[in-house]
Write a structure and sequence with these properties.
Elements (H helix, E strand, L loop, with lengths): L1 E10 L5 E2 L15 E10 L24 E2 L4 H7 L3 E2 L3 E6 L5 H14 L4 E5 L4 H11 L6 E5 L3 H11 L3 E5 L16 H18 L2 E7 L11 H5 L2 E6 L6 E9 L7 E7 L2 E4 L3 H6 L9 E8 L2 E13 L7 E4 L3 H15 L6 E7 L11 H13 L7 E3 L2 E2 L5 E2 L4 H10 L4 E5 H5 L8 E5 L2 H9 L1
Parallel strand pairs: 6-10, 6-11, 7-8, 7-9, 9-10, 15-19, 17-18, 19-22, 22-23
Antiparallel strand pairs: 1-2, 1-3, 4-5, 11-12, 12-13, 13-14, 15-16, 16-18, 20-21
Helix pairs in contact: 4-5, 8-9, 9-12
Protein backbone atom coordinates (compact mmCIF):
# COMPACT_ATOMS: atom_id res chain seq x y z
CA UNK A 1 0.00 0.00 0.00
CA UNK A 2 1.25 3.46 -0.88
CA UNK A 3 1.17 6.00 1.92
CA UNK A 4 1.41 9.79 1.85
CA UNK A 5 0.76 12.57 4.35
CA UNK A 6 -1.54 15.46 3.51
CA UNK A 7 -2.77 18.48 5.45
CA UNK A 8 -6.49 18.63 6.22
CA UNK A 9 -8.50 21.15 8.25
CA UNK A 10 -11.15 19.84 10.69
CA UNK A 11 -13.93 21.70 12.51
CA UNK A 12 -13.57 21.03 16.25
CA UNK A 13 -17.32 21.36 16.78
CA UNK A 14 -18.84 19.07 14.14
CA UNK A 15 -15.88 17.33 12.46
CA UNK A 16 -16.39 18.98 9.04
CA UNK A 17 -13.39 18.31 6.79
CA UNK A 18 -11.91 20.88 4.40
CA UNK A 19 -8.80 21.15 2.24
CA UNK A 20 -8.25 24.76 3.32
CA UNK A 21 -8.81 26.90 6.39
CA UNK A 22 -12.14 28.74 6.65
CA UNK A 23 -13.33 31.30 9.16
CA UNK A 24 -16.85 29.87 9.43
CA UNK A 25 -17.71 26.18 9.28
CA UNK A 26 -20.23 25.36 6.50
CA UNK A 27 -21.53 22.44 8.56
CA UNK A 28 -22.37 23.97 11.96
CA UNK A 29 -21.75 27.68 11.13
CA UNK A 30 -19.38 28.10 14.08
CA UNK A 31 -16.57 30.66 13.80
CA UNK A 32 -12.81 30.01 14.18
CA UNK A 33 -13.16 26.29 14.87
CA UNK A 34 -10.93 24.88 12.09
CA UNK A 35 -7.64 23.26 13.13
CA UNK A 36 -4.88 21.92 10.90
CA UNK A 37 -3.97 18.23 11.12
CA UNK A 38 -1.80 15.89 9.08
CA UNK A 39 -3.60 12.80 7.82
CA UNK A 40 -2.12 9.74 6.18
CA UNK A 41 -3.76 8.81 2.92
CA UNK A 42 -3.61 5.07 2.28
CA UNK A 43 -4.15 3.84 -1.26
CA UNK A 44 -5.07 0.14 -1.28
CA UNK A 45 -3.22 -1.89 -3.89
CA UNK A 46 -6.19 -4.14 -4.46
CA UNK A 47 -9.78 -3.07 -4.08
CA UNK A 48 -12.49 -5.38 -2.88
CA UNK A 49 -14.43 -6.84 -5.73
CA UNK A 50 -18.09 -5.85 -5.94
CA UNK A 51 -19.09 -9.50 -6.10
CA UNK A 52 -17.84 -10.08 -2.52
CA UNK A 53 -20.46 -7.77 -1.02
CA UNK A 54 -23.60 -9.60 0.09
CA UNK A 55 -27.10 -8.17 0.03
CA UNK A 56 -30.14 -9.54 1.83
CA UNK A 57 -33.82 -8.85 2.50
CA UNK A 58 -35.73 -8.11 5.68
CA UNK A 59 -37.43 -11.52 5.57
CA UNK A 60 -34.07 -13.32 5.86
CA UNK A 61 -32.94 -11.35 8.92
CA UNK A 62 -33.56 -13.09 12.24
CA UNK A 63 -34.37 -10.86 15.21
CA UNK A 64 -34.23 -11.67 18.88
CA UNK A 65 -34.82 -9.74 22.07
CA UNK A 66 -31.74 -7.81 23.16
CA UNK A 67 -30.00 -9.44 26.10
CA UNK A 68 -29.66 -6.91 28.90
CA UNK A 69 -27.40 -6.94 31.95
CA UNK A 70 -28.65 -5.18 35.07
CA UNK A 71 -26.22 -2.80 36.79
CA UNK A 72 -28.07 -3.10 40.14
CA UNK A 73 -28.46 0.71 39.95
CA UNK A 74 -32.15 1.23 39.19
CA UNK A 75 -31.78 4.87 38.16
CA UNK A 76 -29.10 4.00 35.59
CA UNK A 77 -31.01 0.96 34.32
CA UNK A 78 -34.09 3.14 33.76
CA UNK A 79 -32.14 5.66 31.66
CA UNK A 80 -30.48 2.86 29.65
CA UNK A 81 -33.89 1.36 28.89
CA UNK A 82 -33.82 -1.60 31.28
CA UNK A 83 -30.12 -2.42 31.59
CA UNK A 84 -26.93 -2.75 29.57
CA UNK A 85 -27.33 -4.18 26.06
CA UNK A 86 -24.53 -6.58 25.11
CA UNK A 87 -22.35 -5.27 22.29
CA UNK A 88 -23.46 -1.65 22.74
CA UNK A 89 -21.26 1.46 22.80
CA UNK A 90 -22.28 3.96 25.50
CA UNK A 91 -20.93 7.52 25.80
CA UNK A 92 -21.11 9.19 29.23
CA UNK A 93 -20.50 12.95 29.14
CA UNK A 94 -20.38 15.59 31.85
CA UNK A 95 -18.43 18.40 33.45
CA UNK A 96 -15.12 17.66 35.20
CA UNK A 97 -15.63 16.43 38.76
CA UNK A 98 -19.35 15.76 38.29
CA UNK A 99 -18.98 12.03 39.11
CA UNK A 100 -18.67 10.19 35.77
CA UNK A 101 -15.74 8.03 36.87
CA UNK A 102 -17.35 7.39 40.26
CA UNK A 103 -20.61 6.21 38.66
CA UNK A 104 -18.85 3.87 36.23
CA UNK A 105 -16.62 2.49 38.98
CA UNK A 106 -19.76 1.67 40.98
CA UNK A 107 -21.17 -0.04 37.88
CA UNK A 108 -17.95 -2.07 37.61
CA UNK A 109 -18.25 -3.04 41.27
CA UNK A 110 -21.86 -4.23 40.91
CA UNK A 111 -21.04 -6.20 37.75
CA UNK A 112 -17.99 -7.80 39.34
CA UNK A 113 -20.14 -8.90 42.29
CA UNK A 114 -22.34 -10.69 39.72
CA UNK A 115 -19.17 -12.57 38.59
CA UNK A 116 -19.09 -10.74 35.27
CA UNK A 117 -15.66 -10.01 33.83
CA UNK A 118 -15.03 -6.26 33.72
CA UNK A 119 -12.01 -4.32 32.43
CA UNK A 120 -11.49 -0.71 33.56
CA UNK A 121 -9.03 1.19 31.33
CA UNK A 122 -7.84 4.58 32.57
CA UNK A 123 -5.79 7.08 30.61
CA UNK A 124 -5.99 9.83 33.23
CA UNK A 125 -5.43 8.20 36.62
CA UNK A 126 -2.81 5.83 37.95
CA UNK A 127 -3.68 2.47 39.49
CA UNK A 128 -2.99 3.92 42.91
CA UNK A 129 -5.48 6.76 42.38
CA UNK A 130 -8.15 4.33 41.18
CA UNK A 131 -7.67 2.16 44.25
CA UNK A 132 -8.05 5.14 46.59
CA UNK A 133 -11.40 5.98 44.96
CA UNK A 134 -12.45 2.32 44.92
CA UNK A 135 -11.81 1.92 48.66
CA UNK A 136 -14.21 4.78 49.29
CA UNK A 137 -16.95 3.05 47.27
CA UNK A 138 -16.76 -0.46 48.76
CA UNK A 139 -15.42 -3.96 48.31
CA UNK A 140 -14.46 -5.26 44.84
CA UNK A 141 -14.05 -8.82 43.61
CA UNK A 142 -11.36 -10.38 41.44
CA UNK A 143 -13.66 -10.15 38.39
CA UNK A 144 -12.59 -6.51 37.94
CA UNK A 145 -9.30 -5.91 36.10
CA UNK A 146 -7.53 -2.56 35.78
CA UNK A 147 -5.30 -1.20 33.03
CA UNK A 148 -3.57 2.18 32.68
CA UNK A 149 -2.92 2.66 28.96
CA UNK A 150 -3.62 5.18 26.18
CA UNK A 151 -2.30 3.34 23.11
CA UNK A 152 -5.20 1.96 21.06
CA UNK A 153 -3.16 -0.91 19.62
CA UNK A 154 -2.14 -2.11 23.09
CA UNK A 155 -5.70 -1.78 24.39
CA UNK A 156 -7.05 -3.75 21.43
CA UNK A 157 -4.64 -6.61 22.08
CA UNK A 158 -5.46 -6.67 25.81
CA UNK A 159 -9.21 -6.81 25.13
CA UNK A 160 -8.71 -9.65 22.61
CA UNK A 161 -6.65 -11.54 25.19
CA UNK A 162 -8.85 -10.94 28.28
CA UNK A 163 -12.26 -11.14 26.55
CA UNK A 164 -14.20 -9.14 29.19
CA UNK A 165 -17.98 -8.67 29.09
CA UNK A 166 -17.84 -4.95 29.91
CA UNK A 167 -15.08 -2.39 29.24
CA UNK A 168 -14.85 1.16 30.62
CA UNK A 169 -12.68 3.73 28.80
CA UNK A 170 -11.77 6.76 30.92
CA UNK A 171 -11.50 8.94 28.90
CA UNK A 172 -11.78 8.97 25.09
CA UNK A 173 -9.81 12.25 24.86
CA UNK A 174 -6.64 10.56 26.19
CA UNK A 175 -6.60 7.67 23.70
CA UNK A 176 -4.36 7.80 20.64
CA UNK A 177 -3.45 5.71 17.61
CA UNK A 178 0.08 5.64 16.21
CA UNK A 179 -1.39 5.56 12.69
CA UNK A 180 -2.70 9.12 13.22
CA UNK A 181 -0.01 11.78 13.52
CA UNK A 182 -2.07 14.38 15.41
CA UNK A 183 -2.01 14.81 19.21
CA UNK A 184 -4.37 12.91 21.58
CA UNK A 185 -7.69 14.69 22.01
CA UNK A 186 -7.67 16.09 18.47
CA UNK A 187 -10.56 15.55 16.07
CA UNK A 188 -8.75 12.81 14.14
CA UNK A 189 -7.65 10.91 17.25
CA UNK A 190 -11.07 11.03 18.92
CA UNK A 191 -12.77 9.85 15.74
CA UNK A 192 -10.23 7.06 15.19
CA UNK A 193 -10.47 5.90 18.82
CA UNK A 194 -14.28 5.83 18.74
CA UNK A 195 -14.29 3.88 15.46
CA UNK A 196 -11.87 1.34 16.96
CA UNK A 197 -13.98 0.81 20.06
CA UNK A 198 -17.13 0.52 17.94
CA UNK A 199 -15.51 -2.29 15.93
CA UNK A 200 -14.46 -4.03 19.15
CA UNK A 201 -17.96 -3.72 20.67
CA UNK A 202 -19.79 -5.04 17.62
CA UNK A 203 -17.20 -7.60 16.57
CA UNK A 204 -16.61 -9.19 19.99
CA UNK A 205 -20.09 -8.53 21.49
CA UNK A 206 -18.55 -6.50 24.33
CA UNK A 207 -20.32 -3.58 26.04
CA UNK A 208 -18.05 -0.53 26.13
CA UNK A 209 -18.59 2.61 28.23
CA UNK A 210 -16.72 5.71 27.02
CA UNK A 211 -16.18 8.75 29.24
CA UNK A 212 -16.22 12.04 27.32
CA UNK A 213 -15.43 15.50 28.66
CA UNK A 214 -17.67 18.42 27.71
CA UNK A 215 -16.84 21.87 26.38
CA UNK A 216 -17.90 25.16 27.99
CA UNK A 217 -21.05 25.05 25.83
CA UNK A 218 -22.02 21.75 27.50
CA UNK A 219 -21.48 19.37 24.56
CA UNK A 220 -19.05 16.47 24.37
CA UNK A 221 -15.59 17.71 23.42
CA UNK A 222 -14.50 16.62 19.97
CA UNK A 223 -16.42 16.22 16.71
CA UNK A 224 -20.18 15.81 16.73
CA UNK A 225 -19.65 12.59 14.80
CA UNK A 226 -18.63 11.04 18.13
CA UNK A 227 -22.26 11.15 19.31
CA UNK A 228 -23.51 9.82 15.97
CA UNK A 229 -21.25 6.75 16.10
CA UNK A 230 -22.22 5.47 19.56
CA UNK A 231 -25.44 3.65 20.48
CA UNK A 232 -26.28 5.61 23.63
CA UNK A 233 -25.36 9.10 24.86
CA UNK A 234 -25.80 9.89 28.55
CA UNK A 235 -25.23 13.31 30.11
CA UNK A 236 -24.38 13.72 33.78
CA UNK A 237 -25.63 17.12 34.95
CA UNK A 238 -25.80 19.15 38.13
CA UNK A 239 -23.90 21.74 40.06
CA UNK A 240 -20.45 20.47 40.92
CA UNK A 241 -20.68 21.77 44.49
CA UNK A 242 -24.28 20.57 45.02
CA UNK A 243 -25.05 17.10 46.36
CA UNK A 244 -27.48 15.91 43.67
CA UNK A 245 -26.70 14.74 40.12
CA UNK A 246 -29.05 14.16 37.17
CA UNK A 247 -28.40 11.54 34.49
CA UNK A 248 -30.23 12.13 31.20
CA UNK A 249 -30.41 10.02 28.05
CA UNK A 250 -29.80 12.21 24.99
CA UNK A 251 -29.65 9.33 22.50
CA UNK A 252 -30.58 5.69 22.97
CA UNK A 253 -30.99 3.11 20.21
CA UNK A 254 -32.32 0.58 22.71
CA UNK A 255 -34.74 2.67 24.77
CA UNK A 256 -36.42 6.00 25.43
CA UNK A 257 -34.51 9.30 25.55
CA UNK A 258 -37.03 10.92 27.92
CA UNK A 259 -35.99 9.10 31.08
CA UNK A 260 -33.87 10.63 33.80
CA UNK A 261 -32.08 9.35 36.90
CA UNK A 262 -31.38 11.33 40.07
CA UNK A 263 -28.36 10.66 42.30
CA UNK A 264 -26.94 12.19 45.45
CA UNK A 265 -23.19 12.48 45.95
CA UNK A 266 -22.00 11.30 49.36
CA UNK A 267 -18.67 10.38 50.90
CA UNK A 268 -18.99 6.74 49.83
CA UNK A 269 -20.05 7.50 46.24
CA UNK A 270 -23.30 8.13 44.40
CA UNK A 271 -26.61 7.09 45.97
CA UNK A 272 -29.93 6.79 44.15
CA UNK A 273 -32.72 9.25 44.96
CA UNK A 274 -35.79 7.01 44.78
CA UNK A 275 -38.30 9.86 45.26
CA UNK A 276 -36.97 12.96 43.47
CA UNK A 277 -40.21 14.91 44.07
CA UNK A 278 -39.86 14.70 47.84
CA UNK A 279 -36.16 15.57 47.51
CA UNK A 280 -36.86 18.67 45.37
CA UNK A 281 -39.63 19.97 47.64
CA UNK A 282 -37.70 19.68 50.90
CA UNK A 283 -37.29 23.03 52.66
CA UNK A 284 -40.31 24.76 51.05
CA UNK A 285 -41.38 28.02 52.73
CA UNK A 286 -44.83 28.15 54.35
CA UNK A 287 -47.39 30.87 53.54
CA UNK A 288 -44.97 32.67 51.23
CA UNK A 289 -46.19 34.50 48.13
CA UNK A 290 -44.67 33.71 44.75
CA UNK A 291 -44.29 29.98 45.41
CA UNK A 292 -46.30 27.14 43.87
CA UNK A 293 -45.75 23.44 43.19
CA UNK A 294 -45.99 22.26 39.58
CA UNK A 295 -45.67 18.80 38.03
CA UNK A 296 -43.44 17.90 35.09
CA UNK A 297 -42.91 14.56 33.36
CA UNK A 298 -39.49 13.08 32.65
CA UNK A 299 -40.25 10.08 30.48
CA UNK A 300 -42.68 7.97 32.49
CA UNK A 301 -41.77 9.57 35.82
CA UNK A 302 -43.73 12.55 37.26
CA UNK A 303 -41.56 15.01 39.19
CA UNK A 304 -42.97 17.70 41.46
CA UNK A 305 -41.00 20.95 41.49
CA UNK A 306 -41.35 24.25 43.30
CA UNK A 307 -41.70 27.27 40.99
CA UNK A 308 -40.67 30.54 42.65
CA UNK A 309 -41.34 34.05 41.37
CA UNK A 310 -40.38 37.49 42.61
CA UNK A 311 -42.09 40.50 41.01
CA UNK A 312 -41.27 44.06 42.09
CA UNK A 313 -41.42 47.53 40.55
CA UNK A 314 -38.30 48.47 38.62
CA UNK A 315 -36.21 51.51 39.56
CA UNK A 316 -34.87 51.79 36.03
CA UNK A 317 -36.41 52.53 32.66
CA UNK A 318 -35.92 49.00 31.41
CA UNK A 319 -37.21 46.24 33.76
CA UNK A 320 -35.00 43.25 34.41
CA UNK A 321 -36.15 39.68 33.74
CA UNK A 322 -34.26 36.59 34.94
CA UNK A 323 -35.10 32.88 34.60
CA UNK A 324 -33.16 30.10 36.34
CA UNK A 325 -34.07 26.50 35.53
CA UNK A 326 -36.50 27.27 32.70
CA UNK A 327 -36.62 29.00 29.31
CA UNK A 328 -36.14 32.77 29.58
CA UNK A 329 -38.14 33.49 26.41
CA UNK A 330 -41.01 31.36 27.69
CA UNK A 331 -41.21 33.51 30.85
CA UNK A 332 -41.38 36.71 28.76
CA UNK A 333 -44.16 35.14 26.66
CA UNK A 334 -46.22 34.20 29.73
CA UNK A 335 -45.79 37.68 31.22
CA UNK A 336 -47.08 39.17 27.96
CA UNK A 337 -50.12 36.86 28.18
CA UNK A 338 -50.83 38.08 31.72
CA UNK A 339 -50.61 41.71 30.65
CA UNK A 340 -52.79 41.28 27.56
CA UNK A 341 -55.39 38.74 28.70
CA UNK A 342 -55.60 39.39 32.45
CA UNK A 343 -54.76 43.11 32.59
CA UNK A 344 -51.81 42.89 35.01
CA UNK A 345 -49.41 45.77 34.28
CA UNK A 346 -46.04 44.03 34.50
CA UNK A 347 -44.26 46.09 31.84
CA UNK A 348 -42.65 48.26 34.56
CA UNK A 349 -41.79 45.38 36.93
CA UNK A 350 -38.65 43.33 37.47
CA UNK A 351 -39.42 39.61 37.38
CA UNK A 352 -37.29 36.72 38.63
CA UNK A 353 -38.28 33.08 38.06
CA UNK A 354 -36.51 30.16 39.71
CA UNK A 355 -37.03 26.39 39.71
CA UNK A 356 -35.98 25.46 43.24
CA UNK A 357 -33.32 22.80 43.64
CA UNK A 358 -31.28 23.80 40.60
CA UNK A 359 -33.05 21.36 38.28
CA UNK A 360 -33.87 22.49 34.74
CA UNK A 361 -37.36 21.91 33.30
CA UNK A 362 -38.59 23.01 29.87
CA UNK A 363 -41.83 21.04 29.59
CA UNK A 364 -44.84 23.26 28.66
CA UNK A 365 -46.83 21.68 31.51
CA UNK A 366 -45.12 23.99 34.02
CA UNK A 367 -46.51 27.08 32.24
CA UNK A 368 -49.48 27.28 34.62
CA UNK A 369 -47.13 27.04 37.60
CA UNK A 370 -45.04 29.96 36.31
CA UNK A 371 -48.18 32.06 35.68
CA UNK A 372 -49.63 31.42 39.15
CA UNK A 373 -46.27 32.10 40.81
CA UNK A 374 -46.01 35.47 38.99
CA UNK A 375 -49.56 36.44 39.97
CA UNK A 376 -49.00 35.30 43.54
CA UNK A 377 -45.92 37.50 43.90
CA UNK A 378 -47.47 40.47 42.08
CA UNK A 379 -50.67 40.47 44.21
CA UNK A 380 -48.97 39.25 47.44
CA UNK A 381 -51.24 36.21 47.59
CA UNK A 382 -49.92 33.10 49.35
CA UNK A 383 -50.97 29.90 47.57
CA UNK A 384 -52.02 26.99 49.80
CA UNK A 385 -49.12 24.60 50.50
CA UNK A 386 -51.26 21.59 49.58
CA UNK A 387 -52.16 22.91 46.11
CA UNK A 388 -50.46 21.69 42.94
CA UNK A 389 -50.96 22.79 39.32
CA UNK A 390 -49.98 21.85 35.78
CA UNK A 391 -51.03 22.83 32.26
CA UNK A 392 -49.78 24.49 29.10
CA UNK A 393 -50.73 28.15 28.58
CA UNK A 394 -51.44 29.43 25.06
CA UNK A 395 -51.18 32.97 23.68
CA UNK A 396 -54.93 33.46 24.05
CA UNK A 397 -54.66 32.72 27.75
CA UNK A 398 -56.22 29.26 27.39
CA UNK A 399 -54.98 26.35 29.50
CA UNK A 400 -54.29 23.42 27.20
CA UNK A 401 -54.21 19.71 27.96
CA UNK A 402 -50.99 17.86 28.77
CA UNK A 403 -50.11 14.16 28.61
CA UNK A 404 -50.26 11.66 31.48
CA UNK A 405 -52.52 13.80 33.67
CA UNK A 406 -53.62 10.85 35.83
CA UNK A 407 -50.00 9.92 36.68
CA UNK A 408 -49.30 13.50 37.70
CA UNK A 409 -52.33 13.63 40.00
CA UNK A 410 -51.45 10.25 41.54
CA UNK A 411 -47.92 11.46 42.34
CA UNK A 412 -49.32 14.62 43.96
CA UNK A 413 -51.71 12.58 46.09
CA UNK A 414 -48.87 10.29 47.17
CA UNK A 415 -46.95 13.27 48.51
CA UNK A 416 -49.91 14.63 50.49
CA UNK A 417 -51.40 17.29 48.20
CA UNK A 418 -55.18 17.65 48.48
CA UNK A 419 -55.94 20.10 45.64
CA UNK A 420 -54.91 20.09 41.98
CA UNK A 421 -55.50 22.82 39.39
CA UNK A 422 -55.35 21.25 35.94
CA UNK A 423 -56.71 21.83 32.40
CA UNK A 424 -60.46 21.24 32.11
CA UNK A 425 -59.88 19.15 28.98
CA UNK A 426 -57.67 16.74 30.97
CA UNK A 427 -60.26 16.61 33.77
CA UNK A 428 -62.90 15.32 31.36
CA UNK A 429 -60.73 12.36 30.37
CA UNK A 430 -60.02 11.10 33.91
CA UNK A 431 -62.09 9.85 36.80
CA UNK A 432 -62.29 11.51 40.19
CA UNK A 433 -59.50 10.40 42.52
CA UNK A 434 -60.30 10.03 46.22
CA UNK A 435 -58.30 12.18 48.59
CA UNK A 436 -57.51 15.03 46.20
CA UNK A 437 -59.83 17.75 44.83
CA UNK A 438 -59.49 18.37 41.09
CA UNK A 439 -60.15 21.91 39.82
CA UNK A 440 -60.48 22.13 36.03
CA UNK A 441 -59.71 25.50 34.40
CA UNK A 442 -60.20 26.70 30.83
CA UNK A 443 -58.00 29.82 30.98
CA UNK A 444 -55.61 31.67 33.25
CA UNK A 445 -58.42 33.89 34.61
CA UNK A 446 -60.11 30.79 36.06
CA UNK A 447 -56.84 29.61 37.60
CA UNK A 448 -56.19 33.01 39.20
CA UNK A 449 -59.75 33.00 40.59
CA UNK A 450 -59.05 29.65 42.32
CA UNK A 451 -55.90 30.89 44.11
CA UNK A 452 -57.57 34.20 45.08
CA UNK A 453 -60.39 32.49 46.99
Amino acid sequence: MAKGKTTVFFCQECGYESAKWMGQCPGCHAWNTFVEEKVEKITPAKRKAAGEAEVTTLARIETKEELRITTKIDELDRVLGGGIVKGSLVLVGGDPGIGKSTLLLQVCRNLSVQERKVLYISGEESLRQIKIRAERIGEFTESLSLLCETNLDVIHEVIKKERPEVVVIDSIQTMYSEAVSSAPGSVSQVREATATFMQIAKGMDITIFIVGHVTKEGVVAGPRVLEHMVDTVLYFEGERHASYRILRGVKNRFGSTNEMGVFEMREDGLHEVENPSEYMLSGRPEDASGSVVACSMEGTRPILIEVQALVCHSNFGIPRRTAAGTDFNRVNLLMAVLEKRVGLKMSDCDAYINIAGGIRMNEPAIDLGIVLALVSSYKEIAIDDKTICFGEVGLSGEVRAVSMARQRVAEAKKLGFNRCILPKVSLQDMKQIDGIKLEGVENVQDAIRFIST
